[in-house]
Design brief:
By secondary structure, the chain is mainly alpha-helical. It is built from 8 helices and no strands. Helix 5 packs antiparallel against helix 6 and helix 6 packs antiparallel against helix 8.
Length: 221
């Protein structure tokens, strides 16, 4: 670890203490975390592109049958024609087309070894938090209000979740978020224990659980 990694961010936390707290191993490495971010952002970008094309198709013909329309539950067309799918006056997928290339660029530069200023990583984490919340708002609207699921929307949701947790993992390891020392120590303890990975897995399983509890009988045929 370089001297910069062990920099003192607070007079109450000596550099040696920070070194002891930071876990080692491949799954805590910048290469792994930026790699996760890259894969998640690419998946999300592809899904956003497909959703954008489908919006154009439905704009030309609202009765068009989309490739991901299969059954009463999985209906991209029904979701795309809802007001929630164009919350800001244009298809939500356009947000993904604008945002994901930024994340891809960040991940590629991170894999190349570039270190970003803390203010930039705070801004990135904040913006992705907003995207994360928005993705889950859309999910609950789809499940409980629209009454249909979009396969590509689910792909965006899950990949957004992976990117958000990977970015959070990285920012905790590098102490980028300027949290109070007790909060940073607690967060680092969660990361060291593997708790952040378990939380990600539990979050995704809970998402699947919501779908099964809501549509279980229909999913089984």
């Amino acid at each position: 670890m370089s001297t910069a990694d062990a920099a003192v961010v607070d007079d109450d936390l000596p550099a040696a203490d920070l070194l002891l707290e930071r876990p080692r191993g491949f799954f805590h490495s910048r290469r792994w975390l930026y790699g996760e971010m890259l894969v998640g952002a690419v998946v999300s970008l592809v899904a956003a592109f497909v959703l954008s094309v489908e919006h154009v198709t439905l704009a030309a013909d609202p009765n068009a049958v989309l490739a991901c329309d299969f059954g009463a539950i999985f209906s991209c067309g029904k979701v795309a024609l809802s007001w929630q799918a164009s919350l800001f006056g244009f298809p939500n997928a356009f947000l993904g087309l604008a945002a994901e290339p930024v994340v891809i660029t960040l991940a590629v530069l991170g894999l190349a070894g570039l270190r970003f200023p803390k203010w930039f990583m705070i801004a990135a984490q904040t913006m992705y938090l907003l995207g994360f919340v928005f993705a889950y708002w859309l999910f609950f609207e789809a499940v409980f209000t629209i009454g249909a699921l979009c396969v590509w929307c689910l792909a965006v949701q899950i990949s957004t979740t992976v990117v958000f947790f990977s970015m959070l993992h990285l920012n905790i390891l590098e102490d980028n978020l300027h949290w109070p020392r007790p909060v940073q120590r607690a967060a680092m303890a969660v990361v060291r224990s593997g708790g952040l990975g378990l939380l990600l897995a539990a979050w995704i399983l809970a998402t699947v659980g919501v779908v099964v509890l809501k549509y279980g009988a229909s999913l089984l045929g």
